[in-house]
Automatic annotation (TrEMBL):
Coiled coil: none annotated. Residues 31-41 have a biased composition (Basic and acidic residues). Residues 43-52 have a biased composition (Polar residues). Its main location: cytoplasm. Keywords: Actin-binding, Cell adhesion, Cytoplasm, Cytoskeleton, Repeat. Pfam families: CH. This is Parvin, beta. One of its GO terms (cellular component) is Z disc. It comes from Lepisosteus oculatus.
Length: 364
């Protein structure tokens, strides 16, 4: 054989071995990643931990003595937890409506600090010195740092436990994000009703001596409505219920008299607030009478035929209350609409009627 042919054959063999070696290296690295993932899954799914957790690669690729916290999938599907997230999302969207910001997913829409910045500025009335738009991770974390420093500075003096950090929020840790939003909602007395006693299971994965260790911890996100919201805004009805519940009927009668004094102008009469105010029609008409304006019939449903139309009426009445100078009602429209309306929702409604009556000087 000629030297040229042998040289070509050697180069071809070297090329083949090089490719084979590269493939083996890539397979080895892939196998190492796979082994680490399997190690993490085994730690989570061990007999002592009867939970099935789907781990992402980043959840198991930990440095020595590092740890990662994640929400257990079973808690993610919990009905009360889903309701809590929906209430928080609706609240954020309502607060930031003028900013034309729409949140659909707490993990994906909150982590970069933009929504938190706008929400804090709206609630506190304080402008933060941060860049409006940040695309880089460094810029996002800098914004989060500024926002969370302002939040913590506000909450710490009131005894709040800080269950969030820049890293946890930016890592899309849903538990940390929900903790933060619940704290803001409670501190600023948001006009929402948070579901009570919402707890979740959190998986904590730690790496010790090269081995992954998993543990489960229960985190309580909300307690009772009274503990979360009521103690911030104790009103006359709270005191009435605590000390003189027998006087409640007297107040109801006075309110009915006051309401009829105005609704009679339209040849309407109320005998029971709980049911006759349930669809929002009388409430809308009453707001117009008290504020001396005509409410166009196309703005509400005079004869509502379904749940959504009734909720629309009550929500519209709440808007009219705010236009009249009252704070946004703490009750939710859907809570006021149902005929079996809860006591606290009724009291929110009663209290606002009293404000209107005092404003118009006609409570009898």
């Amino acid at each position: 054989r000629s030297p040229t042919a042998q040289s070509g054959r050697m180069k071809k063999d070297e090329s083949f071995l090089g490719k084979l070696g590269g493939s083996l290296v890539r397979k080895k690295k892939a196998r190492e990643v796979s082994d680490l993932q399997e190690e993490g899954k085994n730690a989570i799914n061990s007999p002592l931990q009867p939970f099935s957790t789907d781990l992402h690669p980043e959840d198991t690729l930990l440095e020595e003595n590092a740890e990662r916290t994640m929400l257990d999938p079973s808690s993610r599907e919990d009905g009360k937890f889903k309701e809590l997230m929906k209430v928080l999302i609706d609240w954020i969207n309502n607060e930031l409506e003028e900013e034309r910001i729409i949140v659909k997913d707490l993990e994906e829409d909150v982590y970069d600090g933009q929504v938190l910045q706008k929400l804090f500025e709206k609630l506190s009335g304080r402008k933060l010195n941060v860049a409006e738009v940040t695309q880089s991770e460094i810029g996002q974390k800098q914004k989060l740092q500024t926002v969370l420093e302002a939040v913590n500075e506000l909450l710490l003096p009131h005894g709040w436990a800080i269950e969030w950090s820049v890293d946890s929020v930016h890592a899309k840790n849903l538990v940390a994000i929900v903790y933060l939003l619940v704290a803001l909602a409670m501190h600023f007395q948001a006009p929402i009703r948070l579901p009570e006693h919402v707890s979740v299971q959190v998986v904590i994965v730690k790496k010790r001596e090269g081995m992954l260790q998993a543990s489960h911890v229960t985190k309580e996100l909300t307690t009772t409505t009274e503990m979360m919201m009521g103690r911030f805004e104790r009103d006359a009805f709270d005191t009435l219920l605590d000390h003189a519940p027998d006087k409640l009927n007297v107040v109801k009668k006075s309110l009915i008299t006051f309401v009829n004094k105005h609704l009679n102008k339209l040849n309407l009469e109320v005998t029971e607030l709980e049911t006759q105010f349930a669809d929002g029609v009388y409430l809308v008409l009453l707001m117009g009478l008290l504020e001396n304006y005509f409410v166009p019939l196309y703005n509400f449903f005079l004869t509502p035929e379904n749940f959504d139309q009734k909720v629309h009426n009550v929500a519209f009445a709440f808007e009219l209350m705010q236009d009249g100078g009252l704070k946004k009602p703490k009750a939710r429209p859907e809570g006021t609409e149902v005929c079996t309306v809860c006591t606290e929702d009724l009291f929110c409604l009663y209290w606002r009627l009293i404000f209107f009556s005092l404003k118009n000087g006609c409570l009898v």
